[in-house]
Amino acid sequence: MNRSVTVHAPASVSNVGPGFDILGFALDGMGDKITLSTREDEQYVIEAVGAELPMNPEKNVATVGLRSLCNHLGYKGGFDIKIEKNFTPGSGLGSSASSAAGAVFAANELLLAGLTKDELVPFALDGEVVASKNRHADNIAPCMLGGFVAVKGCDPFDAFSVDYPNDLKVLIVFPDVPIKTAEAREILPKSIGMATGISQSANMAGLITGLMRSDYELIRNSLHDEFAQPYRKQLIPHYDEVSDLAYAHEAVGFNISGSGPAMFGLFKAQAETKALKTAIEKIYNQADIGIQFHESGINHRGVEHLR
Ligand code: HSE
């Protein structure tokens, strides 16, 4: 008889200012619901709900990750995989990471393979590479493990969790403009100067320390990116205006989420964001650009089995 498991894989914010390709956190209230079932044959059959996704198993991040894990396990059976999305792919919120991490986690549960979440990351990365054309784990790792995760290396995978203030709140601002991760990487310089490297390292150290000590002033002074944000913000209409507004409304940090177009602001839980959202809405309405918001805490559980 065919068996089935359903998992939830959270959306995630990567880069987080100075942590280009190495720092990310998982988001509550947004993510993929993935149902994986065994089949009698050896086919991988994809069903997508809520978004248009590649139906070819060689091109879908979830099935590529799944295939990589099954090759490792020596499992030759097929699967039906249903991917239910409640957020838009290409938004900068780790959509491909959610699908890839969710699929390999589900297979590990379904096949009782017994791998740890850390051990599953490389297989999910094999899937995510299909979308981003680059091997970085700053979405996969927080999606899998939850909370803030800093990635020291992908080959072999090496990462550590970073403590953060319990009362941290996130506001996602998502203007309706298309940006592809692979293209947003193309526009970045291939090398950086020493002064830029020093300043980015100092900010990364400051941000991690600020998060661990719940030192909001240090977080605010450190959450800056000199590697990607100066180039990518040109792809996001009104970025500077929205950033200025966020800081004027008590943000303790604001930047591009992943490769955009979504942006994120960090706030203390008690901060009032209604006036900020109204002001941002006005900017995008005037420019005739659709705008969505998502407000939540940090997801500390990562991908999980829904029973
Ligand atoms: N760190 C990646 C980037 C995240 O900024 O390109 C998007 O996959």
Can you give me a brief rundown of this structure?
This protein is an alpha+beta fold and 307 residues long. It contains ten helices and eleven strands.
Q: Count of helices?
A: 10
In round numbers, the mean pLDDT is: 96
Strand content: 25-35%
Which assembly state applies to the chains in this document? Answer: single chain
CATH topology of the largest domain: Ribosomal Protein S5, domain 2
In the CATH scheme, the class of the largest domain would be: Alpha Beta
| Sequence stretches where pLDDT stays below 50 over 5 or more residues | none
Which ligands appear in the coordinates?
Answer: L-homoserine
Gyration radius, to the nearest Å?
Answer: 19 Å
What is the annotated CATH architecture of the largest domain? 2-Layer Sandwich
Q: Helix content range of the residues, please?
A: 25-40%
Defining traits:
single chain, 307 residues, alpha+beta, Ribosomal Protein S5, domain 2, 2 domains, seven-stranded mixed sheet, four-stranded antiparallel sheet, 10 helices, globular, binds L-homoserine
Blueprint of the fold:
Layout: E1 4-14, E2 23-38, E3 44-49, H1 61-73, E4 79-85, H2 95-110, H3 117-132, H4 140-145, E5 148-154, E6 157-162, E7 168-175, H5 181-186, H6 194-213, H7 216-222, H8 229-232, H9 239-248, E8 253-256, E9 263-268, H10 274-286, E10 291-296, E11 304-306
Parallel strand pairs: 3-4
Antiparallel strand pairs: 1-2, 1-11, 2-4, 2-5, 5-6, 7-9, 7-10, 8-9
Helix pairs in contact: 1-2, 1-3, 2-3, 6-7
